[in-house]
Write a structure and sequence with these properties.
Blueprint (H helix, E strand, L loop, with lengths): L1 E7 L5 H5 L4 E4 L1 H4 L4 H10 L5 E5 L2 H4 L16 H4 L9 H17 L3 E5 L8 H13 L6 E5 L6 H11 L2 E4 L11 E6 L11 H9 L6 E6 L4 H13 L2
Parallel strand pairs: 1-2, 1-8, 2-3, 3-4, 4-5, 5-6, 6-7, 7-8
Helix pairs in contact: 3-6
């Protein structure tokens, strides 16, 4: 089994980070993607064995009312606000994917994560949108991973992922992980971002990796740096 342990974002400077971990999930791409030139520099400065994953730009997944839009460099126009989010088949959403895809290319990334808000529920409109989006976009060989956060029936998530060739993402200590040889886990903290994982939590997480061929275990809590180190020592012995 190949286990990749890392953090969602850089809790320390990049040079120090890559002295300890060889995978990182870029968060800036969700709020406001960096310039392609900046991403190329990150790739060049990282060790050759380092891997980047990234979150897709929020214009694809989140409605304009989301407070995360405060971090956009350019405020959206009234017309754009009506068109973004929820995988709508609109020019702003498709342009946001192109920006995400170009960034993934610059980073030589393998995985792009689409994290949805809890408001993205399995309504007929949302189902049509997500199908249309993933059926028409250019993938360039990328592994596209989907993290639903709303009240989605487990069977519906699995069926959609199979239909659309998506990797289902979950926080396995909050939601039963989805089956398959490859797992992408995002650890958000039990009960919230400030949570620090116990030794029992990490042992449970390690047990959930059994029978997997490959896994990404990405910590996204306040103590991510320390917790990722502790988990890496547990499963990798380093």
């Amino acid at each position: 089994m190949q286990v990749r342990v890392g953090c969602c974002g850089f809790p320390v400077n990049r040079r120090e980070y890559f002295r300890h971990f060889l995978v990182v999930e870029i968060q800036q791409s969700f709020y406001q993607p960096p310039r392609v030139e900046t991403a190329r520099r990150w790739r060049e400065e990282a060790p050759p064995a380092a891997e980047f994953t990234l979150k897709a730009w929020q214009l694809i997944t989140h409605e304009a009312a989301s407070p995360t839009y405060r971090r956009l460099r350019r405020p959206l126009s009234a017309a754009e606000r009506r068109q973004v989010g929820a995988f709508r088949p609109t020019p702003p959403v498709l342009q946001a994917w192109e920006a995400t895809r170009e960034l993934a290319q610059a980073l030589n990334a393998r995985v792009v994560v689409f994290q949805c808000p809890a408001s993205f529920t399995p309504t007929p409109e949302h189902l049509t949108n997500i199908r249309t989006f993933f059926q028409q976009i250019r993938r360039d060989g990328l592994l596209l991973a989907w993290e639903p956060r709303g009240p989605w029936p487990r069977e519906e998530v699995l069926a959609l992922c199979e239909e659309l060739n998506l990797l289902p993402v979950a926080d396995p200590l909050a939601t039963p992980p989805y089956p398959g040889p490859l797992a992408y886990f995002r650890l958000h903290g039990r009960g919230g971002y400030r949570y620090r994982y116990t030794e029992e939590d990490l042992a449970e997480l390690a047990r959930l990796l059994r029978d997997r061929e490959e896994a990404y275990v990405m910590f996204n809590n306040l103590g991510m740096w320390e917790d990722a180190h502790r988990f890496a020592r547990l499963v990798l012995g380093e």
